[in-house]
Amino acid sequence: MTIASDVKQCFAQLKGIEADLSSLALRTQANESKRTLHETMMIVHEISADLKKRIGEVEREESQYKGF
Length: 68
Known about the structure:
Elements: H1 3-27, H2 31-61
Helix pairs in contact: 1-2
């Protein structure tokens, strides 16, 4: 497995975690828990956005990794 595919797999996993956190926040009754889950989801979203930018950089630098 190449570094590029590892990074893309990590990105996909982060998007899944983000979706899971969002779902939990919507289903949770406790306000503090809701807030914590939402804040954590937003942090994961920022990380995945940064990683998506890095994937774009890798694809520009190494054309064989295009296909995102």
